[in-house]
Structure formats: structure tokens, C-alpha cells
Design brief:
Layout lengths: L3 H13 L2 H8 L3 H15 L4 E3 L4 E3 L1 H29 L2 E8 L1 H4 L2 H13 L2 E8 L2 H10 L4 E3 L29 H15 L2
Parallel strand pairs: 3-4, 3-5
Antiparallel strand pairs: 1-2
Amino acid sequence: MLDLRKLRYFLAVAQALHFGRAAQALHLAQPALTRQISALEAQLGFSLFERSSRNVSLTVQGQAFVPYARNVIEQLALAETMAARLASGMAGHLSLGYASSVALSDRFTQAIQRFAQAFPEVQLNLIEQASMNQWAQLRDGTLDIGLSRLPPPPSTTCTPTPWSTNPCCWRCRSATRSVNRHRSAWRSCSSAR
């Protein structure tokens, strides 16, 4: 398996075409950088650079390898960014169940629009269903939020929270931090007027 650090070193040397300058930019000693590049070349099975006492240039294979190494580093940066967005609740998934009568409310439509604008990378899965089905799915974790005009039956663990002057209840069951953030965001979007 390729070492990401060695790929970064390779790209630094490929850009500078000078081991000394690349080592300085990487805050490494030149001999250490040279050893890392040699180890990468041995792992790959081909030379990346042609070296002389005065010049460093990419081999044909080295030139062909640059875009692939760059792509790996860019994809890693994207993955790190997405992981941070998922951890912060700015991306992910939220399942919202609602009774058909709730969907007729302007407040519901406005809340959906505000949430989608505020959190474009959160996939909001809207599921129209009867209140009794919502309570069961909230209990088993299939739904994150349920909206209904009917209060939950006494046998459920759902705690209703008033949503408007019409008794619209919701209850969130998932314990993950990102879903909790999404639920909080939903509350703020749905309570704004």
C-alpha cells in the first residue's frame, strides 16, 4: 500500500525539480527526502526521477504518475473536508415523518425550505405516513423526527413537543451527534417565522 506521506514528498520534488528546495519546503533534511523517494521508487518498481549532479527531471513514468498521485492527495483532502462536515452536522441524512395534514401547513413548507437552504448537504428524507406508524418508527430509530397533529399513545416513549398553536408533536430518537445537530437545526428552521 502506498504511503501518503511519500506521495506528498514525490509531488513536492516533482514541482520543485530540486531535492534541496523540496526538502526545505517540506522541512526535511535532503538525505531523508532522497531516501523516501528511493523507497517509493522501489515500491512502485520504476524510477520517478532522472538525477544528475546538476539536474532533476521526471522520467516518463514519473510524468505519467503525477496526476494519479495528485488525485489521491486531492481525494484525501475532500474526504477530510466531508468527514468534518459530517461530524459538525453540516452534511448527512435526516428522516422526517409527517402526517398528511401537517404538509398542508405553510409553516411546514417554510421550514423545509429554510432547512434545505441552511443545510444543502443534509439529505432530508420526507416520509408521509400515519401518526401511529411514525411513533413506531421513532421508537425503532427508522425516523429521526415525526410531525403529527395527534399526540403519541401513552405506550410510546415519545415525548411530544408543541410545534405551533395546532398541537403538532415531534420526537427525535437517534442518539448520534450529527443527527442531533440536524434535529436542532430543524427546530431552529421550523420555529423561525
